[in-house]
Amino acid sequence: MATDALRAQVASKWQESFARLNHNEPGIVGLLNFTQAWNIARECIRPRGLDEPDSFTQYDKSTFQASFELLNKSRRLPILLESLLEDMRKRFPVIKEEVDRYTLEYERTSDTSFILNLVFRLLKWYKKWLPMQELGATLHSAFVLSFQTHLFSVLTPTFVRGFKDLCASTLPSTDPRTNVPAPNVEMWQAFEILGLLDRYENIIASVGYEHIEAHVVAACSGRWSNPMLGQLRKWMTDKVVPWMLLMYARNATTADDARAMLQNVGSRFDFHMAKTLCDLRTKEIFDIIIDYPDSSGALQDLKECLHRVDQRASLVHTLRKANQKRLLHPGADTRLILTQYVATIKCLRVVDPPGVLLFKVADPIRRYLRERPDTIRCIVSNLVGDDDSGDSLVDESEPIQPLQQYELDDYLDSNWEPEPVDAGPDFRANKPSDVISTLVSIYDSRDLFVKELQLLLAQRLLAIIDDDTEKVEKERRNVEILKIRFGEAALQICEVMLKDMTDSKRIDGHVQSQKASIVHPIILSKQFWPMLEATEIVMPGQFRTLQDEYAKEFSAFKPDKKLRWLPHLGTVHLVLHLEDRIVEVDVPPLEAAFIELFSQQDVWTMDELIAKVGSSVDGTAALKALLTWVDLGVLKEQAENTFRLLEVAESAADGAREWRTVTKSVIELPSAPSLQQQQAEQMRVYWKFIEGMLTNLGSLSLDRIQAMLKLAPGYDQTIEQLGIFMEAARLEELVVVRDGMWKLTPK
């Protein structure tokens, strides 16, 4: 039963299929017609060689259509399509041979014309094998997909490299002197037909990116005076957009259509141009800062690019790395570091007004400057115009204003804005904006600057000779300006020093009116002037007499005060009458004391001279003073550390027996201990307090010592300064420390 049913079912299907193929014709006429239609269709769509005639030379169009209609009715088009694809697979090695031949020639010569010829050759094969449109969209789309699949499988990496070079050759050269290549529309149409545009879209885009990169580097490297972004966008509009039209908007019929098609890709190209320029300026940022303000144009470009490209972290990393390598090392002068720091402040405020970038970049510079011992001196010297480098840290056009302090955020302010998203936890948006406030904020306390100002003013005032009132007035003007910045209370001591200069002139006038003297001292108020390096020189002979006479007249005028001479400071104008010449010279007091002793005898040893003027004079200073007279031809070193007075010049070269020789020696600024030395001396005053604490209380932590010292009158040192002093005491074996606890060294 089952077998009979299956046989009947198969017979039914066979009759149905035969009837469909035979088209209900008598006998097998329909089957013969189907066979003829199949053969005509196969011949029509068979892949041919380029030199073979086309199918329409054998059959007319109506015959083709009739054959395909018959096959369609017979439901045999899928079988015909499979046959076409199989025939194309078998014929494709012919195309592969041509691909290999052309790419081999390109690899040998690097001539992109071989790649272009190959593309046109592939287009001929494509058109030769392409079925007629009348055969239907299904057959056409299946052929295109299969042809492109086989084609992409035979294209070698050499072809891809040549294809990229071919696309690059269609772009205008970065050299403006070269001619712009004419657009090859046929080439881009061939790319589109063969599917190369979609297949290698990223490669074509990379060609445009690399061209933009090359132009940006060539046009903008080292050119910082003017903004370049506008010029780059104009160049892109004139040179790159026409090239983009061929690739991305070749089917546009109107300008609006082209603009719409290029909107997305144009934005990507503009982004890449901004990124390339941002990368270039980031790489050059250290030199751009050095060249400021002549590099303002580059900073404007960088600011605009950073709004478009998120590369702020890269800029911070690059600049910090460049600072560490080129700036923050022992070979760099402190003035140079400060100058670069100020330029960095100004430049990064242009690029990022909120100051986040500056906060991140400046932190290593500030920490390094804080460790340098001469940072405060350099800043203060620049403030009072005592910097010999000629580079001012402060812009003259910048208004003078009080030092700014950090303020808490006012959330009731209608103009309040939150901090930027990339700001760190320690960032404060309302930091000091002027340069001087920023420099002073390197240190936790402005008292260090005030003390340095006092020290520098003392040196400058003591260096004034010949009663130069103009220089005194200049210092007074500086102090008035500094009052605006630091406040009047902080500079009261400076006012006292200036008043001492005025009072000294008035007192000297009174003393001179009572008894004329060649001594014109500056009378200092001991409590208000910084500690000056004391060298107890005993001025011999006439100098001592002159000092005593002047002190007597001063005491008569000021009975409640007493003069204590500082003979190591000041200048002495001498006229030496020798047998064959007269030497007129300005020298420091030590040189004058030594030459005065030579009026008593002609030969002295250096040790004898030191014993006469005071044992506190060290050998180096004494030798330097004696060599001054040797250089002037007044003394001669006849043995080691033994000097003889030359009443008569030894040779014509020493004076040619001229009766008058006038020489001005170099007068050095009076020395004063540095701020660190003064702090060390002040800490030594409190050593007795520390010693008493450790004796009575045993071991103490640094915090406990600091808390107890604050009870002592006049103590104003920080815990860091106390730590430095205690470490110095440990090195002198006065104290020992274990687990942070300090105690006296056991005896």
From TrEMBL:
Transmembrane segments: none
GO BP field: cell division; metaphase/anaphase transition of mitotic cell cycle; protein K11-linked ubiquitination; ubiquitin-dependent protein catabolic process
GO MF, any single term: ubiquitin protein ligase binding
Residue ranges annotated for the Cullin family profile domain, each copy included: 408-614
Recorded coiled-coil stretches: none
InterPro entries from the UniProt entry: ANAPC2 (IPR044554), ANAPC2_C (IPR014786), Cullin-like_AB (IPR059120), Cullin_homology (IPR016158), Cullin_homology_sf (IPR036317), TPR_ANAPC2 (IPR057975), WH-like_DNA-bd_sf (IPR036388), WH_DNA-bd_sf (IPR036390)
GO annotation, cellular component aspect: anaphase-promoting complex
Domain of life: Eukaryota
UniProt keyword list: Cell cycle, Cell division, Mitosis, Ubl conjugation pathway
Cited SUPFAM superfamilies: Cullin homology domain (SSF75632), Winged helix' DNA-binding domain (SSF46785)
Family of the protein in this entry: Belongs to the cullin family.
PANTHER family, A to Z: ANAPHASE-PROMOTING COMPLEX SUBUNIT 2
Name of this chain's protein: Anaphase-promoting complex subunit 2
